[in-house]
Amino acid sequence: MPIPTFSRMLPTARLSITQALRLETHFLRGMPRQFSIATPLHRTALSLANLTAGEPVTNTNLASTLLTEGYCCDHSFPHTGTADLVLTEDQPATSSAPYPANVDHSLAYLEEIRSQSFKKFPGLANMMISRNTGQCLYWLVTLLKPRNILELGSLTGYSALWLAEGMKRLHKNPVGDVATEPPVTACELKPQLVETIRANLRQYGMEPWIQVKEGPAMDTLRAFPTGTQYDLIFMDANKSDYINYYETIISSGLLAPEGLLVVDNTLFRNQVCVKYPAVQKILRKVNKVAPLPGLSGEDTGKRTSKTPEYIMKFNQYVAEDPRTENIMLPLFDGMSLIRHRSL
Ligand SMILES: C[S@@+](CC[C@H](N)C(=O)[O-])C[C@H]1O[C@@H](n2cnc3c(N)ncnc32)[C@H](O)[C@@H]1O
């Protein structure tokens, strides 16, 4: 069956958020395509990649996406004053690929893992990184050429696999600090998820690239022999321990001197920005048509009402830490890049 062409339905659509949400619900659900929403003000495409390809779509996560992929700092927040949106296609109508053309299509198996995760763990899968974040991690790996990678919080292995694919692109054979060990270490607390990660690794032949450590990430961090160093660390486990993980990683020297610590969800659906008047304004506007999930995501598993507070405190902690410097990318749910200041 041919994929309906959105532009045929709406050649040049200027829509309110309400209309966009309605359209999204009616037409875009489950379509294996990518669309973007650009505001008339800045014309920046906000990719809705994470809302397509059969994922459950709710008004809530559409609204969150609008916010988290928007501009979230008080000085650069451009949405103020308009709720109008222009919906445009950002893929040719013939394409059915879930990724933009520049992404290696051999990575399509990740899409399978993504949709299986939504089927198997509907209440948790929403916590996965977005496809764009996955691509970004993959790019970081290929640019930085880390010797090894550590991930805290792995769910079903989706983000770890993006990281491992970066390593795979760099090396024909898996090479870790210790040649016999897979170069990516993934830490996951829940046995059922660990089992799923292992099954995914087996199914897609990725066991030589990723080793899984089951249990609390803090135990795993503390168990590393003195002198262990990682060139790239991706932190995406429970937010309540972000400061503890960060402190352990930085003070123990686990992050190599030229290493990069990547931390996910540092904008936490923009809820960390509510103190900014411009953000409050857009939140009020969006809330009229699609209430945000308050401070506890309705479908976000472990996220608790305290999560935005944990993230805010973490961001503050890092910002004030003279040992490191960081930059926050407004990508999906916010991603911070942190490195030693001594560089
Ligand atoms: C945001 S999800 C990770 C998503 C994954 N990085 C991805 O994008 O595919 C957070 C994960 O951390 C795990 N987690 C929670 N507390 C943890 C802990 N103390 N130690 C290790 N993992 C933990 C959760 O079970 C969950 O799978």
From TrEMBL:
The molecular function terms of the Gene Ontology recorded here are: O-methyltransferase activity; S-adenosylmethionine-dependent methyltransferase activity
Alphabetic keyword roster: Methyltransferase, S-adenosyl-L-methionine, Transferase
Classification of source organism: Eukaryota, Fungi, Fungi incertae sedis, Zoopagomycota, Kickxellomycotina
Q: Does the keyword Methyltransferase apply?
A: yes
What is the originating organism of this protein?
Answer: Dispira parvispora
Q: Cross-referenced Gene3D superfamilies, in alphabetical order?
A: Vaccinia Virus protein VP39
Which family is it part of? Belongs to the class I-like SAM-binding methyltransferase superfamily. Cation-dependent O-methyltransferase family.
Kindly state a single biological-process term from the GO annotations of this entry.
Answer: methylation
Q: Which InterPro entries match?
A: Cation-dep_OMT (IPR050362), SAM-dependent_MTases_sf (IPR029063), SAM_O-MeTrfase (IPR002935)
Source domain of life: Eukaryota
Name of the protein described by the UniProt record: O-methyltransferase
